[in-house]
Amino acid sequence: MSESTFSWELFQKAPIVGIVRNVSLADVIRILPIFREAGLTTIEITMNTPGAEEIIRFALENESDGLNIGAGTVCTKDDLKLALNAGAQFIVTPIIDKKVIKYCVKKEIPIFPGAFTPTEIYNAWSMGANMVKIYPATSLGPEYIKDLKAPMNQLKLLPTGGVGLNNMSDFFKAGANGLGIGGQLFDKKLILDKNWGGLKAHFQQFVSKLPVA
Fold it and tell me: What is the pTM of this model?
């Protein structure tokens, strides 16, 4: 089914993976169209969010037009099974699990595994990862991306953790191929207050800081 396929073209338009963690289905229903209207294209529902599978299913059935919808915090083959049964179009992990990576590569499902050291990152890439999530990027900052890319410029890197409006441009300048952004993108207070207009304006700030293709 075409709607269950990840679109790289969409991702390149706005290379941010928005990470939804512990947001209710009712709120996600309101957020998805706003996310898309703001110009964002790729959203990840973490599997440790209550009702994650239901949220992924809803998103795919109702809001998949113009959005990539995937699953995050996939740590085991069991998590992977649940995520794929729900229809996830891409998979993000916080760690390297060979079985998860190999299965996704074999089935041609984009996989962005989490890694930290140069060896881990290179290993994940060698296993066939489409992009490697540098996690947590908080303590390392943009310079680390630059340092990794110097000897290994073939790597595609997705720094995640601690990325926000104040440093996202620096990460892109350093060579990041995309950014994983959670709490700083999905502002808890705006969501709690059901301030959907404010949330859209907040999303648009991130879009305005994206490098011009």
Answer: 0.96
